[in-house]
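Task 17 of the worksheet. Students: predict the tertiary structure of the chain below and write it out as structure tokens. Keep your answer in the requested format; marks are given for formatting as well as content.
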Amino acid sequence: MSNRVERIRKDYRRIIGAAIFALCGLFGGTAWADGRTLCVLVPHFKDEYWLSVAYGVEQRSEDLGFSVHFFEAGGYDALENQLRQIDACRALQPVAILIGAVSSDAPGLLTAVEVASRSLPVIGLVNELHSDALATQVGVDWANMGRALGSHLADRYPGRGAPVEAVLLSGPPKAGWVAPLERGLMEGLVGSSVTIVATYGADTGTAEQLRLVEKARAEHPQAGLVIGTAPAIEAAMALETGDDGPALAATYSSHSIARGLVGRQVLAAPFDDPVQQGRLAVDAAEAILGGAAIDKDIRTEIRVLTGGLDPSDIALSPADYFPHLD
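Model answer:
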């Protein structure tokens, strides 16, 4: 219970901090600017994945002497919040903006990024953002993430085997990573005995994804395989406590998925090293500020983790980590 109380306190401080930043933007304050500030915008921290990204950003920023301010939009449906946060972020006079976009192609977001990029570098973080104004994009090709998982499942469920019905629990269609991941997954499954009979999508908070799990299981109780986001599979692990439940596979990795892999509750999940992505985004900012040429796309390696995982095989943020807020 103490951890939940502390998380509530942190959430409260985050909200208050965002309000203070917004006031700085409204009244033209510059007291926060220190010449080495990075501004980081993320969709939300409801998904543990983003905690690891933030940890990488914060740790590498400490190495290079940056101060960091985090903004959390509140979800993939919080476009207006993210637009306001871009304005508040610019008021801090950062040297660069790192943005995990809530949408890949919302016109207002593309315009805001283009305007911001006129005065400072804007770096795409994890999520696809279809903007030529980005100085670089740090992340993975999400089609390759899906393809890696699909290929692994195709090896496990070859076409000569018994047919397997699967449900896919995905993210919101507006998020830039969702469509490429689903497309890659389907490509990877070609030739397997797996048929995805239904696809569901929602914001990647645990509560929203739990509702998807319950809906999918009610509508397709015969499905022998559930493929889903990390929060969806976390929820499914809690619901499917018997030995006769469906097999579970995650479309990306988080702390909960790592625990499920260690305990063999989860068959497989692709790992794209979110901590390293955070670090690489800070490295990109440092390189740009130093006048160095960098690639337009900076990628991390994708590997598929399987049941029986040794926890030392992957690096995620510490279990008690939450982004530092002033």
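Marker's comment: The two ends are 24 Å apart (CA to CA). The first strand starts at residue 37 and ends at 42.
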